Amino acid sequence: MATNPIPLRLKHARLLIGISQKELGVRIGMDEGSASGRMNHYEKGRHVPDVDTLRKLAKELNVPLNYFFCEDDSSAELACLIDLLDENAKKALINDLKHQRDMGR
Q1: Could you tell me the pTM of the whole model?
Q2: How far apart are the first and last CA of the chain?
Q3: What is the pLDDT of residue 1?
């Protein structure tokens, strides 16, 4: 059984923007007195944030929600890059990938 990718992704994204666990928690609306502890529990995998909390974290950390569920770094990076594309570019990428897949058959 694979490990939960959320703790690793959460910590990585938080460190990339250079803020503390407490600051991140406060930014998403947690009580200042418990923010650090709650975020620590999320990053250690003791507790899993609910989807609404993950949405807030994703917005604050400037990553797509699906980033938290990527099990490898390449998929996480792709999720972030794809999220930056507009809808037309996403559709073009899908078509290109399908074409490459079909050519490999």
Answers
A1: 0.89
A2: 30
A3: 46
